[in-house]
Amino acid sequence: MDITLVKRIYDKMYVDEEEIPLPEGFQGVQDIDCLIFIRLVEENSRSTRLAQFMLFLSQSKEKGINTSTVWKCKARESAVDIYSLIKKDHQEIAGLFRRLKAAEGFSETSEQLFAQLREELELHAHAEERVWYPALREAEGTQELVEEALDDHELVQDLLDELAVSRMDDAARSEKLEVLEAHVEDHVEEEESDIFDVALQLFSVEQAAELAQHWQIAKQEHMARHAK
């Protein structure tokens, strides 16, 4: 498949919203290996939308590319998927670590921020263990990745418990907080690389959107139980 041709079709039909004649023999679905295409365009500034476009086409039951197909793809693009929700949590948690380090020396603020960090980490872990990991486990060859991720959760929870009972002025507290941050960063890196790579091959666009719905429900139910 000529990648330059695919990009030209994308620009005309997706960006400019123009109908263009397709080259003879080009049917889109049959001619696209989406995972290879994503790798080829991932450094491109428009890679996210372009990759989503090709992913939709590769999973579409339609035989060709036309304006209707493009508009369906645009509608799908606006839907939330499991990957964006997980990344959003990761970003919020990283922000809390930064704020907590900046508040060092201000006991009351640090205590409030740590409570928020602990809540976010535990909520995120709950959603992963309730929704994300069970879905991954259903596929062959994912067991080791899931087990390693669960081990990460257990280690993070142990560190959170230790920090929760430590004194704010304890000299070892800062070191332990750094250890916690390092473990969380390692977990995030593993998840957004190796685990996401596997998941992208396992789950369709529809399945990723459905997992996102289950993720949100799991978090809402967990928050409701702990609010009582």
Q: Can you put this structure into words, describing what you see?
A:
With 228 residues, this protein is mostly helical. The chain has 2 domains: 3-77, no CATH class; 82-227. The chain is 76% helix and 0% strand. It has 9 helices and no strands. It has helices spanning 3-15, 34-41, 47-59, 67-77, 82-102, 107-137, 143-164, 171-202, 205-227. Helix 5 packs antiparallel against helix 6 and helix 6 runs antiparallel to helix 7 (143-164).
List the helices and strands and how they pair.
Blueprint: H1 3-15, H2 34-41, H3 47-59, H4 67-77, H5 82-102, H6 107-137, H7 143-164, H8 171-202, H9 205-227
Helix pairs in contact: 2-3, 3-4, 5-6, 5-8, 6-7, 6-9, 7-8
